[in-house]
Amino acid sequence: xxxxxxxxxxxxxxxxxxxxxxxxxxxxxxxxxxxxxxxxxxxxxxxxxxxxxxxxxxxxxxxxxxxxxxxxxxxxxxxxxxxxxxxxxxxxxxxxxxxxxxxxxxxxxxxxxxxxxxxxxxxxxxxxxxxxxxxxxxxxxxxxxxxxxxxxxxxxxxxxxxxxxxxxxxxxxxxxxxxxxxxxxxxxxxxxxxxxxxxxxxxxxxxxxxxxxxxxxxxxxxxxxxxxxxxxxxxxxxxxxxxxxxxxxxxxxxxxxxxxxxx
Length: 263
Hints:
Elements: E1 9-11, E2 14-16, E3 20-23, H1 30-40, E4 44-48, E5 73-77, H2 84-97, E6 103-106, H3 119-131, E7 135-140, H4 144-153, E8 157-160, H5 174-183, E9 189-191, H6 197-206, E10 210-213, H7 215-218, H8 223-243
Parallel strand pairs: 3-4, 3-10, 4-5, 6-7, 7-8, 9-10
Antiparallel strand pairs: 1-2
Helix pairs in contact: 1-8, 2-3, 3-4, 4-5, 6-8
């Protein structure tokens, strides 16, 4: 019998059992956020500092009451930032709110229609944040060259989009993702575009180290059930990748070979 060794995702020196990272926005209320997060069994939860209250407003409901830092790794992100200066300022604010927290997710958007990454500004912000002592996970285009540049700057994980944020279109360019994975020495996580469980499984089967999603769960008719499905899909995809699929070939191969038959 094959002994299955513990399979952990290590980011900035910290191991995580779950390879599914989830967002905290777009739910109908904080209770649904809590229930979906628990169903996903995620350990890293992204928080849009510009949109979600984690203490900025003491009179408003606080996300950290249902997703406590004692249980989860909070990953502040820069959703809504369109230049390097704003992104850096936002994460410096997050560090103050979270008592010196270093692990962050950088995203610098190009425009409001596509939410595609502005890579020149992303590279600029990444360099500033790494020099300032942050552990930077970074949303980027599926460009193998620029993904490698971000790694060389010192980012602890690169997060290429599968398709546009919130589109649910799935993985549109598996070849580019494969090139990024092949050349990377840091974790590669698909970020943006996942629509359903099969998309998450495909990302993991390609060799991604993890998947981050928000809309695919929060926007589902039953977010809690979808969160559970995504957990299982990520686990199944990872197991399939580690097991090693059979090669594709243009010929049949019988499950029961003729050689050695009894009669």
